[in-house]
Predict the structure.
Amino acid sequence: MLPVMLLISILLGLIPLAGVAWIIVTGTMTTVDGLFESLIMLSISGVFFLNVFWELRDRGLQSRALQATTLFRRQLGTQRSHAQSSILSRKW
């Protein structure tokens, strides 16, 4: 049941973003109506994406993604440090 809730929240978070994109494409962003309509849609989208964030945090999926990102950065940093040390060890 929870994966369905997560997918519905993602879908309901993307729909207002499509509305904001439509407002930008049609050029009504510069009107007062377009401004407030886009602010309302961004708020609605933010609420649904906050729900997605909380669901992922409660399941522990966010921490797994964070661990994978940290591991990738460490590997990238190790590769950079090896490249830097090989450049610095060259004698011109």
The two ends are 65 Å apart (CA to CA). The mean pLDDT is 82.
